[in-house]
Amino acid sequence: MLTTMENPSTLLVVDDLLTSKEFYIKALGANLEEEHDDGIKLKVAEHVLLMFQGSMTAVDYEHGYHACSTLVFTVDNLDEKIDELKSYGVEFIHSSPNQNRWGRYAAFKAPCGIVHELMEYSSPFKTKA
Fold first, then answer.
1. Strand ranges, E, within the chain
2. Burial (CB count within 10 angstroms: exposed 0-12, middle 13-18, buried 19+), residue 50
3. For residue range 76-96, what is the model confidence (pLDDT) as tens digits?
């Protein structure tokens, strides 16, 4: 019988640990839990982000078409958060937010090249971040 797995976390391998740490804390609101020479542990709400220093940049891919993983950050006001992230110099993938069955979203690149999304859920799919 299989045992139940709980509390998944996310591992991010980045090409510049210090720049990435600053971005995830300052721009995305992650909390620093642990810091070591080669990696850090962050927390966003109840989700753990483990980040390690890699030696290469992220693979370039077409978001939404190539198989990949993406962190989705829930926001109450997508337009405000887009403006806030742009003030940090964040590069967005699309020129304006997109719509799907659950709400509006916008994809962006972290400094290391990994693509994530902001998601503003519409009712009745509204969830707490």
1. 10-14, 31-35, 39-44, 47-53, 72-74, 91-92, 98-100, 103-109, 115-121
2. middle
3. 999 999 999 999 999 999 889
How many residues are listed for the chain in this entry? 129
Instruction: Give residues with Cβ within 8 angstroms of 82, minimum separation 6.
Output: 92, 97, 106, 118
Closest CA to 108 of 121, 122, 119, 124: 119
d(Cα 101, Cα 86) in Å, to the nearest integer?
A: 26
User: Model-level pTM greater than 0.90?
Assistant: no
What confidence score (pLDDT) does residue 65 get?
Answer: 72
d(CA 17, CA 27): 15
